[in-house]
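Internal ticket - ligand job 119, FE2/S2 (inorganic) cluster:
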Amino acid sequence: MAGTPRGELICSVDDIQVKQALRVLIDDYPVVVVRDSDGGIHALGDTCSHADISLSEGEVEGCAIECWGHGSQFDLRSGAPLQLPAYEPVPVFALEIHDNDVYVDVTTVTNGAPAPQLG
Ligand code: FES
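stdout (structure tokens):
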């Protein structure tokens, strides 16, 4: 992609292993950057929509991450919960890969979830 990437530089693509979840703070807002089972990289709000638990502490399987709190899984592409008790999506953020580096723009929510309140 030409031009300057949008968002914050998070890490190199090679810093995230397949099925790994990396928690980062962007403007004090917790984000989880996840590599799915096929190697795709996604950026979502790190807080489960059911309660205040970090999704980065959960297991990645396929293209979903599971919250250890009560077992809801969230689709990494859409942020949608795949089963109860969570029923609200978590925000999915614009992500660009530029020169093998990962950039996340938390001002751009791509799935219609409420935008985070940034400090
Ligand atoms: S806190 Fe995540 S499913 Fe309950």
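Auto-summary: The chain has one domain: 8-107. Residues 48, 50-51, 53, 67, 69-70, 72, 85-86 surround FE2/S2 (inorganic) cluster (CB under 6 Å).
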